[in-house]
Amino acid sequence: MMTRMKVSGTNRRALQEAGPVSATNFVVPENKAATDDDMGSVIDYVKSYARQEIVTPVQNAPRWIGFGLGGALMFGIGLMFVVLGALRFMQTAFPAEFHRVGWSLLMYSIGIFVCVLVIAFGLKKIKKPTLEKGSTKQ
Q1: pLDDT of residue 13
Q2: 8 Å CB contact between 28 and 22
Q3: Contact status, residue 92 vs residue 83, Cβ threshold 8 Å
C-alpha cells in the first residue's frame, strides 16, 4: 500500500517548475545542458581527487626523502664511531697474544657482525611504507 506525502503549495509549485519527477522522487532534467553541467562537475571532482591522491604526495616526497637520507647519514656515522671505539677497546684491552693476524681478524669480524646486526634490526622495525600521515598500510 502506497502512502502519499502531503506537499504544501509552495513546494508543489517548485516541483512543477523543476520538471517531471521520476519514480525515485528525483527531478529529471528536461534539457541536455543540465546533464552537461553534472558531467562537468564529475570531471572536476575526479581532477581534484587525482590532485589530492597523486600530486600532493609527490610534492611532499622530497621532504620525506631528505629527512630519511639525513637520518640515515647521521645514524651511519654514529654507528661507525661506536664500532671503531669498540674495535679499539678490544685491541687495547686484550693481551698481546691476540694481536697476531688470525686474532686481529676476529676483532674486525666482530665489528662487522655488530654492524650487520644493527642494520638488520633497523630494517625489521620499518613499519610505515607510505608517505601519508597516519597511514600504516602493509
Answers
A1: 59
A2: yes
A3: no
State the Cα–Cα distance between residues 110 and 94, nearest whole angstrom: 14
User: Which residues, including other chains, have CB under 8 Å from residue 135's CB and lie 6 or more apart?
Assistant: 128
Nearest to 98 by CA among 89, 111, 107: 107
Distance between CA 35 and CA 124 in Å, rounded? 54
Q: What would the pLDDT profile of 25-65 be if each residue is shown by its tens digit?
A: 555 556 555 566 777 888 888 888 888 888 877 888 888 88
What pLDDT shows up at residue 90?
A: 83
Beta-bridge partners for 118: none
Please list, residue by residue across 41-70, b when 16 or more beta carbons sit within 10 angstroms of its beta carbon and e when fewer do.
eeeeeeeeeeeeeeeeeeeeeeeeeeeeee
Q: With a threshold of 0.70, does the pTM exceed it? A: no
